[in-house]
Every structure is written in C-alpha cells, then in structure tokens.
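Extended Data, panel c. Modelled sequence:
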Amino acid sequence: MQNIKSIAVFCGSKSGKNPLFIEQATQLGTLLAKRNIKLVYGGGSVGIMGAVANAVMQNNGEVIGVIPQLLVEWEQQHNSITELIVVNDMHTRKKLIYEKSDAVIILPGGNGTLDELFETITWNTLKIHEMKVYILNSGGFYNHLLHHLDKMLEEGFLYDDWRNKIVVCDNPEEILYCLR
C-alpha cells in the first residue's frame, strides 16, 4: 500500500434502495480491517455509514468517527467504534477527517456525500491537500455524475482532467487493489 494507514470514507447516512450499496460498504469495511487500514468517517451508526463502520469493527479494525454536535441525534452517533469525536460544526468535521486520513473513498450517498466529494476535489485543485479520491461506483450509482465531470472538462471549467485525481472502481476489491 502507498503508505495508506487511514482512509476517509464519505457515504450516506441512509441505506438507499439498492441492497448492493450496503453489501459493498460491508465488503469495504471488512477489507479495510483485514489490511489494517483505519477507517475515518462521519460517526453515524445508520445507513451506509453504519454498515462500513460495523464491518470494520466486526473484523477487529480501528474506526474513528467525527460527528458535529448538530448531527449526534440526527445520525444516531455510533457508540461502538474505537473513537468518536464530537465537533462543533460540519466544517470542523470535514477538516478533521481530512487531517486524519491518507486518501478518500466515496460510496453512494446524498447531498452531504456530494459536498464532501467536491470539497475534496476542490482542495486537491487548490493544493490544500493532495489526497487521492476513490469512487465506489456501486451498480453505476455515479455514472451520471462522471458524465457531468466529463462535460465540465469538455467545456473548459476544470483546471485539469478529473481522472488525474479520481479513480473510479466498481467494487471494493478493485479499490484495495488500486491503493497499492
């Protein structure tokens, strides 16, 4: 592995309609634990967030959750992880997750997940950090978004080809292979 000791995972606090989302989140958590890669995530116990954290913990891995006080009740904070850090706001949450991680994996999710994806890409462009981003495109979930990124590049709105910073994978095993 390219010195990847901890990885940020951004994903939904809901499970979504496709059972593949939870299945692949669970597979990813298992693989991270087996490779001794620490999970750093949003601190929730439900949805895809909960599935990936639970899988890491069930396989004797290490999980750090970072959750803003505002969302402690909303996302049902995870009380069975290695460490739960409660922060004041969403900005502090994301900054702390980035500081504690060597790379980022994006799983299916909603507005918050897209916010985290685009902030990560923007910070890479601005050289605030240079973390590689891996998108788990479960069941083609992100296909339309990837086409839109191509359109943004084609129309001259990106500073460089998004493929230089983002690796798109169809399954968790592929992500772990690409981390090498």
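The first helix runs from residue 19 to 34. This feature is highlighted in the accompanying rendering.
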